[in-house]
Known about the structure:
This protein is of the alpha+beta class and 431 residues long. The chain is built from 14 helices and 7 strands.
Amino acid sequence: MRRSSSLVGLLWAIPYFIAACVSAALSAGTGASAAASVWLPAGVAMAALMLTRPRGWFAVIPALVGAQFAFGLLRGVGAVDALLVAIALAAAPAVALAIVVRFARTPLSGLYFLRALFLAALIDSALAICIDVTLHAPALFGLPPDAPMRALAHFVGIFVLTPVFTAWSRFRPSRRVAHGVTERVIGAIAFVALVPCALFAFEAPVFGQLASNLAVGLSYVPLVLCVVISLMWDARGGAMSVLALAIIALLQTVTGHGPFASTLDDSSLIGAQIYVATASVLVLLTTTLHGHRERAMERAHRWRTNIELALAGSGQLVYCLDARSGRIEWAGDIEAIAGYDARELATQEAVLAIVATEDRARLRAQWLRAAAGVPGAEMTFTLRTDRDTLVAVTDHTTPTDDLGDGPGFIVGIWRKAAQQPESAVSAEVAA
């Protein structure tokens, strides 16, 4: 068990170190003046603690501290400072998640995931500012000039990279095809088009007001493509598209290209950070709402299937008659009882046409009373199937109010009667 926990910690330390190196490559400036446009390790640390049970944090947090300490030494930071920064950066997401989950009692699934991630990112960003002030300027009052940019770097890193790990951690191979070929092809086309569109929007240096306005306008195209990818490929595709867009946008900005790099200063980096954060939030909203809708539809389909099976097993039919239009919807195995498809009996007149002549007036009167708001008594009548055989059916009808405007719908239950009515017996004798 201890070996397994150590292995899990090591597996999280590797992507943390890689993300730190990528963030260093996306930094503006060199040496001590380098400013991280995005701090991707914050997203790795948040995902590691989100996807690990609290008792496993004792193995994950030391691994993250070790990865950050090694990165600090690689960057030329002193051993003491590197260790303090590593401990602080590993503790920040743990504190944020503890506050969100334990005290705010926000679940980490479904529609609550976005709210939990937003709150945790805000707390982590605030702690990042406190760490920066404590370690770099403890004697100064107020915030250092680059504090907002560092806070945004943590916020963007969490929103860019945490959804990648959480989305792929929920991946389970299944034989069920979630999307058709058309959706997969559209998603592939959008993903292939995302990289050149993002490079084109962030490639050319900005010259003049017209070029600046054009560059800003073109920057919306990758956002649309990210949304399309998230709709076609779910959360996994959306998270990967945001990651690709973030790397392109931030790398081009720190090298002096794109709509946010008219001057390479803190404000330009903040503009790029806000752009990437907006893309991530937009895709998360899209995937969360789309996934919630798909799960709701799947639950509704499963519930309807269970009802259909229960009705078919008990030999019953349930119908809903619109008293105004005369349309009827059926639930249950209608072919087993009436011998007709539900589409053939989709209107009131079509149903009355297969009812025995002697019983049509009684059934019509039953429905008229229900339309007037009078509950109908149970009645038995005869209908003729598609094989020209007679079947005795018992009907129980109940009116329902339509938003206070009187009975708008009539619901009823059909089931085969134990014995045929007199009309059916007389019809068979006459035949």
